[in-house]
Amino acid sequence: MKSVNSRRRLPALALALACALPGLSAQALPDDRQQPVKVSADNLEANRSKNLSVYSGNVVISQGSLQIRADRVEVHGNTKGEINKVIATGKPAHFQQQVEESTTPVKARAARIEFLVASDALQLTGEAFVDRDGNTLSAERIDYDLNSEQMKARGQSEKKRVEMIWKPEGQSESNEE
């Protein structure tokens, strides 16, 4: 009987963790937080005692303008059911979110994207790339604070150095090569 009850709780835990995603979007458009969270994946494994849900196989998580796409996503929670961090991995994993009404979404990709909820920070590792309104940053690792929009980047070697490209003011993305 205990295993039947445990099996019934796993989908409830997964739903609770997915519903806690609104806390992920501190810098999101105002109505993003009011939007439903949608999670789709080929597989789900949830462990209530560890406050962990693992989605795998073509994972897509969305809420308003926030979207995470990856091969595998771990959602780590605390005992209150609040999300602490989300770890997305893929070849590559993708993150995007529109932070202002008049701008294009911030887009990021990397082999591993760790989203730290409390600090609204992204840690991108493995061929990391961020595009903010056509201005791009690529490096082996990028730390991106979504609140202040401050970034730190580091290369891995002479062949994998930090590269930033700023487009001239007033130039639209369609004018770029």
Give short descriptive properties of this protein:
mainly beta; globular; disordered N terminus; 177 residues; ten-stranded antiparallel β-sheet; 1 helix
Q: What's the short story on this structure?
A:
With 177 residues, the chain is mostly beta strands.
Number of helices: 1
Structural class: mainly beta
What are the low-pLDDT stretches, counting only 5+ consecutive residues below 50? Answer: 1-27
Mean pLDDT: 79
Q: Roughly what percent helix?
A: 10-25%
What does the main sheet amount to? 10 strands, antiparallel
Q: Whole-number radius of gyration?
A: 17 Å
Give the tally of β-strands. Answer: 10
Strand content: over 45%
User: Helix-strand pattern, N to C?
Assistant: HEEEEEEEEEE
The shape is globular
Give the CA-CA distance, first to last residue.
63 Å
Task: Please describe the topology of this protein.
Blueprint: H1 2-19, E1 38-40, E2 43-47, E3 52-63, E4 66-77, E5 83-97, E6 106-116, E7 121-132, E8 135-145, E9 150-154, E10 163-165
Antiparallel strand pairs: 1-3, 2-3, 3-4, 4-5, 5-6, 6-7, 7-8, 8-9, 8-10
Structure overview:
The chain has 177 residues and is mainly beta. The protein has one helix at 2-19; strands at 38-40, 43-47, 52-63, 66-77, 83-97, 106-116, 121-132, 135-145, 150-154, 163-165. It is built from one helix and ten strands. The longest helix has 18 residues, at 2-19.
